[in-house]
C-alpha cells in the first residue's frame, strides 16, 4: 500500500532501510542463487533486532533477526529489503514468524519475483492485520539483487562484461603486454567482483597469453566457477586452471565435435567439466548461458579479451558493463581494444548503455551501465 507518512517519517524509514541494505550486503558472495536480504526491527524509534541472509540454505533475514531477539515485539516495525517469503523452502515462511511475533508494521524494499512469493507475502501479512508499506528505497533494493531478479525470471546467468582499458582504448600493448592496464584500486575492486559473482569467464586467448588462476584473492572459499570458452579445446593440460581443477571448479565450453575428442577425455580426467555448447564451429554463447543457468550459475563476470567480448555482445548475452579507464595511452594500431570483431557499421546502431554510473577508483575512472534492452 501507499504510505501517507510525513516527510520526516519517510526519511526515518529510509534510514532504517539503508541499515537493512548494509546488513544485506554482508551476505555478498554467500547467498547465490538466493538474494541478499537484510532486516531491521524497530521499537519506539530504536533498533532492537537485526539480521541478514547469511548463506544459501540458512535462515532468511527476518528469521535471523527475530529468533535472536527475545523481547516482546508486539507492534514493532520490521524493515526488510525484499518482500518476506510465504513458502516452505529450505526454511519455513518468514511471514509466519512475523505474524507469530506480533509485528505491527512491515516496510518492504522491493517485491520478490520468485513465483512462489510474488506479492503473496505482502497479501498474507495484510490478511493477518499487519500494515505493509512497500517501495521504500525500492530502486536501491532492486539493484542490490539485480542478479537475483534476472536469474529468477530468465534462468540464465546475469553477465557482467568487465574490462580495463587505457584512455586511448587499448586493453594491451601491441606486443600483448597488459600488466597492468589499471591501477591497484581498480584491481582490488575486480577482486571484490570476483567474490560477488558465481562464475568468471575468459576466452582461450587469455589462458594462452596469461595462464591466469581467475580466483578471488580477498577471501578464501568464495572463488567463482572458472569458465573458459574454448571452442576447439586448445587449453593446455599444464595450464594453472586445469592443474587446479580439483580445488576450484573449471568448466571448459566447446563445440559438440571437440567434446567427443581425446582431449576432452584428458581434461575430464583432470577434473574439468567439458561442456558442449552447440554443434557449430564455435561455442554458441546463448546455449552456453542456458546450460550454465541449469547449473545454478546465476551470474558470470566476463573478463574476456577483444574476441570473446565481441562474440558476447553480438550474441546479446551481456547484461551489464563495468569499464575501468586508466589515464594512460599506449597507441598502436595492432593493440587490442576491449571489443573486437567486425563491429557495428553505423554509430546510430551502437549498443547504448542506460542507467549509467561513473566514478573514480584511485587514478582510474569507471563507467557502468546496462546495454539497451537488458
Ligand atoms: C526472504 N528473506 O532473507 C531471503 C528470501 O530456498 P529458500 O527456502 O532459502 O528460499 C529461497 C527463496 O526465498 C528465494 O528465491 C527468494 O524468493 C526468497 N528469499 N526471502 O523473505 C530472505 N533470502
Ligand atoms: Zn523468507
TrEMBL record:
- What name has this protein been given in UniProt? Riboflavin biosynthesis protein RibD
The record's catalysed reaction(s) read: 5-amino-6-(5-phospho-D-ribitylamino)uracil + NADP(+) = 5-amino-6-(5-phospho-D-ribosylamino)uracil + NADPH + H(+); 2,5-diamino-6-hydroxy-4-(5-phosphoribosylamino)-pyrimidine + H2O + H(+) = 5-amino-6-(5-phospho-D-ribosylamino)uracil + NH4(+)
Q: Which organism is it from?
A: Pseudoramibacter alactolyticus ATCC 23263
Q: Active site: which residues?
A: 62
Function according to Swiss-Prot or TrEMBL: Converts 2,5-diamino-6-(ribosylamino)-4(3h)-pyrimidinone 5'-phosphate into 5-amino-6-(ribosylamino)-2,4(1h,3h)-pyrimidinedione 5'-phosphate.
Q: Which PROSITE patterns match?
A: CYT_DCMP_DEAMINASES_1, CYT_DCMP_DEAMINASES_2
The residues the record assigns to binding Zn(2+) are 60, 85, 94
Annotated positions binding substrate: 194, 206, 214, 217, 303
